[in-house]
Every structure is written in structure tokens, then in C-alpha cells.
């Protein structure tokens, strides 16, 4: 994606989503960033581009990695959804890792060409 208007729209959607997930109003984020609410609205609607420094500031204030604003970094929407959920609910990480571990073990058993028979453990996945 190289169309600047599409990039701005996707960045704006990501900003809005991150802001809402933190329970913030546009006014709240604007105050924290030192800008007008209308500036936040223009960012979110994709009618104003965010500089890299502004993007990083917003990510920091929203407690998110700056990569959430970069289109195409997470091509898999399912993965992005899982990562967003885990950012909001880190208490779910052990359960998600256990489910992933079960899935990986099942795949290893079903794959007769697998050469490494060592099974991952929840502890090795966490580190």
C-alpha cells in the first residue's frame, strides 16, 4: 500500500481503535498530546497525516507499540486481534500459551516428517 490517503486512513483507524480500547475520549487524548480535539479527529479520519514523532507519542500515551499504526506490519488480522487482546488482558497469556502448546503438539504428532521430537513446554514458550 503506497497511496498516502489509504495509509492515513489506516493509521487513523488504528489510533481510534487504540484510543477507544483505553476508554479515552478524543478530548482526553488531545489534552495528553498537547493538541486540539479537532487535530485528533482529523488524524482518526485520515484527513491529516501524523508525523513519526507524533505517532510514537500517541503509541506511548496509549500504552501500545508504535507498530500498531503501521499498515501491513501485522498482515494477519487474527494475529493482531490476539495481540491486542493480550495487551489488554495479560492475565490470559498463560492460558493462550497452553492452548498454543497443545496445538503445536498435535501438529507435531500429525507430521511424520518432523525431525525434532523435542516437545515445547509452556515455560520455554514464555521465555
- Based on DSSP secondary structure assignment, what is the total number of beta strands? 0
Order of helices and strands: HHHHHHH
CATH class of the largest domain: Mainly Alpha
Largest sheet: none
Uncertain ranges: none
| Shape type | elongated
Q: What is the domain total for the residues? A: 2
Q: What does the average pLDDT come to?
A: 83
Annotated CATH topology of the largest domain: 434 Repressor (Amino-terminal Domain)
Report how far the terminal alpha carbons are from each other.
Answer: 34 Å
What is the CATH-assigned architecture of the largest domain?
Answer: Orthogonal Bundle
What fraction of the residues are assigned to beta strands by DSSP?
A: under 5%
Helicity, as a percent range: 55-70%
Q: What are the defining features of this structure?
A:
single chain, 127 residues, mainly alpha, 434 Repressor (Amino-terminal Domain)
Structure in words:
The chain is mostly helical and 127 residues long. Helix content is 64%, strand content 0%. The protein has helices spanning 4-21, 26-33, 37-45, 52-62, 77-88, 93-110, 122-126. It is elongated.
Q: What are the SSEs and their pairings?
A:
Blueprint: H1 4-21, H2 26-33, H3 37-45, H4 52-62, H5 77-88, H6 93-110, H7 122-126
Helix pairs in contact: 1-3, 2-3
Question: What is the structure about, briefly put?
Answer:
It is built from 7 helices and no strands. With 127 residues, it is mostly helical.
Amino acid at each position: 500500500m503506497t497511496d498516502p490517503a489509504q495509509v492515513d486512513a489506516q493509521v487513523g483507524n488504528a489510533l481510534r481503535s487504540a484510543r477507544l480500547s483505553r476508554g479515552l475520549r478524543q478530548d482526553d487524548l488531545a489534552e495528553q498530546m498537547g493538541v486540539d480535539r479537532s487535530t485528533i479527529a482529523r488524524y482518526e479520519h485520515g484527513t491529516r497525516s501524523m508525523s513519526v514523532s507524533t505517532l510514537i507519542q500517541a503509541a506511548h500515551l496509549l500504552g501500545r507499540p508504535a507498530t500498531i499504526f503501521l499498515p501491513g506490519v501485522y498482515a494477519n488480522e487474527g494475529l493482531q486481534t490476539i495481540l491486542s487482546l493480550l495487551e489488554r488482558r495479560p492475565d490470559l497469556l498463560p492460558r493462550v500459551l497452553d492452548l498454543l502448546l497443545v496445538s503445536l503438539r498435535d501438529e507435531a504428532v500429525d507430521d511424520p516428517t518432523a525431525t525434532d521430537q523435542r516437545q515445547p513446554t509452556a515455560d520455554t514458550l514464555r521465555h
